[in-house]
Amino acid sequence: QVQLVYSGGGLVQPGGSLRLSCAASTTTFNTVTMAWFRQAPGKQRELVATITSGGIAVYTDSVKGRFTISRDNAKNTVYLEMNSLKPEDTAVYYCNALPISFTWGQGTQVTVSS
After folding, report:
1. Is the pLDDT of residue 1 over 90?
2. Would you say 21 and 33 are in contact if contact means Cβ atoms under 8 Å apart?
């Protein structure tokens, strides 16, 4: 069973930045598309950004120009750099492969508040 280990969440003021990391315990990481999702309280989990094995990134409209997804295949890790954070970005953030292949894990909490 693939384990997803998260780091980098926390409390930040509006306009601030955070960098999330998600490390996957799989030998096939470099072959799969990876994605970041988020789930705000009382809302469904939503797709935030994806990155193909070749590094092509796609973003949901609400984060375009503010978030950057990247990956390090040597470290089996996907990152999400988040800038100009807004209170509406508050959520638990998760990563997974696309199509969904791994157990979600606990995610990492991001809270944007003054």
Report:
1. no
2. no
